[in-house]
What we know:
The protein is mainly alpha-helical. It contains four helices and four strands, in the order αββββααα.
Amino acid sequence: MAQGNEPQTEEAVPQVDREVAERWIGALHRCPRCGKRKPPAEFYARQDRPGRERPHCCDCHKAISLAWQRENRDLHNEANARYRDRNRDRDRERSRRRRAKLKREGEARA
């Protein structure tokens, strides 16, 4: 066999090369809050940049959001009230469809 054509084991690949490959291939992302490397599926998508993920992993994003909501309870409640006012008809329609679906599922089980 020719020298150098054997597949390299993971231990044989230098750490620097693995980090560069992960960065460019997009295999793992590092969360700046917890410091863990996770697959892109564990990061929320960005609404302002399609095809990109938010910087914090889902777990950290939830913790950050809940902390903000607790610290800014009045602002959070006002924003929720504005949303409900603007989307009252859509929410009623969504609730109507959900109740109908649950009713159908209940009848199917019986």
